[in-house]
Amino acid sequence: MKNNILKYFLKYVKIDTMSMEGQSTTPSTKKQFNLAKILVDDLAELGLKDINLNDNCIVTAYLPSNCNSKLNIGFIAHMDTIPGFSGTNVKPNVINNYDGNTIKLNNIELNPNKFPFLKNLKGKTLITTDGTTVLGADDKAGIANIMTMLKYYHDNPTLKHVNIHVAFTPDEEIGGGIFSFDVKKFGCDYAYTVDGEPYNEINYENFNAKTINVEIKGLDIHPGSAKGQMINASRVAMEFDSLLSDFNRPEYTDGYDGFNHLCEIKGEVGYANMSYILRNHDEKLLDKQVNEFKNACEFLNKKYTFDTVKLEIIDSYSNMRQLIEKDDRCIKRAIAAIKACGFIPNTVPIRGGTDGAKLTQMGLNTPNLGTGGYNCHGPYECACLEEMENVVKILIEIAKE
Ligand SMILES: [Zn+2]
Fold it and tell me: For residue 136, which of 78, 57, 60 has the smallest C-alpha distance?
């Protein structure tokens, strides 16, 4: 099985599929079709039905049940890699029987003291970058795992399985690829994104997310004659930020803590604006954070007797937990599968959003599973082949009759 995983994985990571912010089309980059077309061929080789690649670069396919099961389960992974770091000319580096020491890769190093998970991977097979690109384990490890699960059922036709649906999607990293996904046509009872890190993790809680833009209008007067009149928008912006709780910042928070993150600030005397993202797993606590912004706005508008501060509050995405708990068959099945493989399931809240959170809102409950990849979004990215194999075993178990 490991050979199959490695064969698929090394083939896929070598194909540049970097997505790009700020594009008006899906996919954001045409090169994502290069991988999509290869996946179409690989799915055909494994005998899947209804293989389709649409104009938005979404690949879907179907493996009908061989036991009249009525259950339809989806497996989803994304094809793109992050826009922030090069995905061109990826040269994967396979390290057999990892000795547990620091790995030197051109001008960077993977140091177990800095990345403690490496200590658990001693003796395992690691796949790293050469230090100059991403690896693309996020999420080609997910794709390779799903493909190997399909290959397993292809090679073992007597093993009974449910109706298996797969989808490979573009532009996850820029949060845009999933909106055109046809949930109804996909026809699943529920699905899983295979896009996490440790093999035994399940994620079905993510942040509730809002964006708040703060617009500040000042009163720009010649500084020589400004006494009692000037309102310096840049100073009001600083004052506004100082009215928010200090410890609600990303650098002070983890686990279930929410935060307000000041992403951008621009200011002159006459005009300033700030953009914040607000995150919390708990909707009510997020509302509290929003109220703090409203209170700061009201306070400053009273102080400056002027229509100085204006807020624009935008809903971004919400926690899938509320919806998944209404029909948690997907969680029960994943936990049972992980246990049946002899592993210990670990449910961990995601401090971000996922395509699965959007799909859940679109009516398809879609928690997230691990891939065996680590350190995503940069040159430190790596994957552990044995953990990927564990993921494949879990996927096989989930799809079992
Ligand atoms: Zn990902």
Answer: 78
Average pLDDT over residues 289-299: 97
The predicted pLDDT at position 175 comes to: 82
Q: Of 16, 42, 80, 138, which one is the catalytic site residue?
A: 80
Q: How far is CA 283 from the centre of its chain?
A: 20
Nearest to 284 by CA among 208, 357, 352: 208
Residue 353 has pLDDT above 90, yes or no: no
Domains by residue range for the chain, with CATH: 2-205+319-399 (3.40.630.10), 209-316 (3.30.70.360)
Give catalytic status of residue 312 as yes or no. no
* pLDDT above 80 (res 305): no
CA separation for the pair 126, 380 (Å, rounded): 12
The rounded distance, in Å, linking the Cα atoms of 389 and 172 is 24
The dihedral sign for the CA sequence 117, 120, 125, 130: positive
Q: Which long-range contacts (C-beta less than 8 Å, at least 24 apart) are formed by 326-329?
A: 327/190, 327/365, 329/189, 329/190, 329/365
- In the numeric block, the tokens 């993790």 are attached to 201
Known catalytic membership, residue 80: yes
Look at residue 376 in the predicted model and tell me its pLDDT: 87
Please tell me the distance from the alpha carbon of residue 32 to that of residue 37, in angstroms, as a whole number: 9
Pairing of strands 190-194, 309-317: unpaired
Candidate list 16, 139, 171, 172, residue with the active-site label: 172
Rounded to the nearest whole angstrom, what is the distance from the C-alpha of residue 81 to the centroid of ligand 1?
8
Q: Supply the DSSP string of 253-298, one letter for each residue.
A: --TT--EEEEEEEEE-SSEEEEEEEEEESSHHHHHHHHHHHHHHHH
| Distance of CA 172 from the midpoint of ligand 1 (Å) | 7
> What's residue 176's pLDDT?
80
Helix/strand/coil percentages in the chain, nearest 5: 30, 25, 45
Taking Cα atoms as reference points, which of 191, 199, 201, 143 lies closest to residue 164? 191
